[in-house]
Amino acid sequence: MRAVDPGRDAAPWGALRAALWPDEAGVDGADDLAEALEPADDTCVLLAIDPDATPIGLVEARLRRDYVNGASTSPVGFLEAWYVAPAWRGRGVGRMLVAGVEAWARGRGCSELASDALLRNIPAHAAHLGCGFVETERVVYFLKRLAP
After folding, report:
1. How close are the terminal C-alpha atoms of the chain, in Å?
2. What is the SS3 assignment for 47?
3. pLDDT for 10-22, tens place per residue?
């Protein structure tokens, strides 16, 4: 596991993000990658690397100082992105990435680490529970378009 180097890791990091969010245009582009690293003091991006030095997983985390569902402290470390290539799932790669973020968050004074997952993403729920997260609440978001 290593911290992302935007120069060396842009292509594989971008490819992992595109695999995580296949329906989101531009997540692998230079602007989105740069944005994921800002502000530098409040972000952590780690890549999991296989024995051949190929990136196989990623985690992006940020300190959140606003309201975080279920949290009782501030700031809170928050997993913004977490992905492991399908061939590597179930082998401890995701757990290792989360452990790296836990250490990073503790080093910034956090006593809690939070995350979220879509209601329909049952495998993500299981992965979170397997890493020691507990479900705190479920939320359904609503939107109403307003006429001009």
Report:
1. 50
2. strand
3. 999 999 999 999 9
CA 128 remoteness from chain centre = 11
Q: Cα–Cα distances in Å, from 119 out to 28, 83, 92, 132?
A: 25, 17, 23, 18
Strands (E), 2-122: 2-3, 43-49, 55-64, 76-84, 113-114
Residue showing tokens 């503790």 = 106
Per DSSP, the three-state class of 64 is: strand
Inter-residue contact 117 to 125 (CB < 8 Å) = yes
121-144, pLDDT tens digit by residue? 999 999 999 999 999 999 888 999
Residue type, 146: L
For the whole model, what pTM was predicted? 0.91
Of 145, 136, 130, 52, nearest to 92 by C-alpha is 130
CB atoms within 10 A of CB 144: 4
